[in-house]
Amino acid sequence: MALCFSINHGCVTAVLGLASANLGDELGGVQSGTLYILYTLSALLIATSLVHSLGAKWSLACGLGMYCFYVGSFLIAAKVEAVKWPAAIIGSAIGGTAAGWLWTAQGVYFARVAERYAVDSGIEKEKCTSWLASVFASIYVGFEVILKLASSFLYDFGSDVFVYTFFTVVAVACAVLMVFVPKEPPPMSQAENQPMSTGERLAQAGKLLATDARMRWIAGFEIMFGFSTSFLNFYINGTIVKAALGKKDIGYMSAVVPAVATLMAIPYSWLTNSIGKAPVMLGGCLSYLTIAIVVAAVQDGTLESLKWGLVFLYILAGNGRSVFEGTNKAMVADFFPEEKPAAFANIIITSGGASAIAFYVFPEMDKIAMAIVVAVACMYGIAGIIFAFRIHSARGKAEWGKVEEEDEEHVLEGKDAVNFTEPGG
User: Fold this and answer.
1) What angle do CA 41, 47, 51 make, to 5 degrees?
2) pTM assigned to the model
3) Segment 266-277 mean pLDDT
4) For residue 419, is pLDDT > 50?
5) Which of 174, 196, 235 is nearest to 374 (CA)?
6) Are 310 and 74 in contact (CB under 8 A)?
7) How many CA atoms lie within 13 A of 114 on its CB side?
8) What is the pLDDT averaged over residues 260-273?
9) Angle, to 10 degrees, between the axis of helix 198-211 and the axis of helix 213-231?
10) Average pLDDT over residues 244-261
11) Contact present, 359 and 230 (Cβ < 8 Å)
12) pLDDT range class, residue 18, cuts 50, 70, 90
């Protein structure tokens, strides 16, 4: 699953990075905005329902197939100038719809496998989710690095048509291979598989956000990620790096982000088992906050004079990306074991929604205003992680105390003590 998903998605991110350069600022912006809007709406309105109906494996297969239309739209736009606009917009609409569905399905597939692995291996569930999340993150961002580098390297051998043909063929191959991936294990909890009406399924994500304070606080981290990555792609890539190194080298610099994320994935898995997930999550927030402060405080000319020295901003972004892809998703799986589809849909809604907003508002703002928006989102992310973990810990202690009280009552009544294990924090 991880290989098919990661290579297909790597093709998507590779062509996305070329959107403005090859389609122009206007069409590139509209296309990317459409992609993220449909991505968010899909996660909110249909993703949870479709995952429940088709299952995670077949949702992944269908979603990867739909992603191919987005990649292929670049090929059509490059070959036929007359249909560039409709091809780009239709492709982004199909790809955006796929994205919300696809990531929700990936989250469910991952969580089911982690649960089953924990039971079969006898390892604590929290440790299993951390380890498997780091493995997935390594594969996912690793192929993103390779394919982003390829987006520049392939131009040495051909034109736009050659590059987009390569990515389209690879994306289609991965979608076909996903059909042969084993189906996800059945849910360990009956609550996750309880029959629900269509209306209830569509409202799952919204209900979880409205009724669980942890989800609302976690949303701060996801919103921070959406605004921060948009700031990096829109302003730092498009203005600072373009002026410092030239458009051709943007792809090489951008590849630093997933490269660092890949290198940090396994160490963060070990670290979370030692000190917990909260400190690592806070470290991700501080990385993005540092980027916002540096860009706001230092003049563009000074930053541009650094040339390849600007890589330190991308190293920070890579650290934050690693936390988002690995630790963040492991945390969500731990917090919401019986509500995984809705919980992972909320990740898409909040991060994708923030990115969609950024695509439309950042062009109207100067760099100070953009940096302030990112910094405020980072502060919300920091506060959100602190409060989400405090609430989760308090609930765990309350459940532990309730079990202790029930056990004491059984003992006083002369009955056998119940078996229990302390809930993970």
Assistant:
1) 180
2) 0.75
3) 88
4) no
5) 235
6) no
7) 27
8) 87
9) 90
10) 85
11) yes
12) confident
